[in-house]
Amino acid sequence: MSLKLGDNVDLIFSTTKFHLPADETSPVIMIAAGSGIAPFRSFWLAKKLNPMYLFFGCQKESDVPFKSELDQLEKSDRLTLYPAYSRSETNAQYVQDKVAEESDTIHNLLLNSKTTIYVCGSPEMEFSIREKLIKIIGKDIVSSCMKLARMKNEGMCLEILVDDLSSSVLNIV
Fold it and tell me: Strands across the sheet with 79-85, in order?
């Protein structure tokens, strides 16, 4: 099918801020649990070269969606995966536990003023992730919250999508 002069075309424009940063040197931290991983698939399918770090939680390794894609991305050094399995017999943990465990990694990434963090999941998980990020940034909660606000003002927007897809994208600060 080809378009001809005068044909009508339906267009939908998204107003979401949920997209990869334009600067391909900007690291991207993605945090998700369960089906929250789905929106991030568009990130790794994009032809951009942003360094990507995926913190992901599900019940067990066999439940990981897009497993073959993630394995291939990790092997090609396009993505670093930090999985958490809540029903693991050896090391049960949730994604927020994995974030806390990898606090040094996240802290080092946040030293780069271009780093962007995206979180997809339930409001409860998002709240827990927010608490972990505050602890990673600093011990003093007031100064940590101020640093998160400063990061947002400097273009390090922290975007949160919650399970209720009818709600708009929420800012973490």
Answer: 79-85, 52-58, 28-33, 116-121, 158-162, 170-171
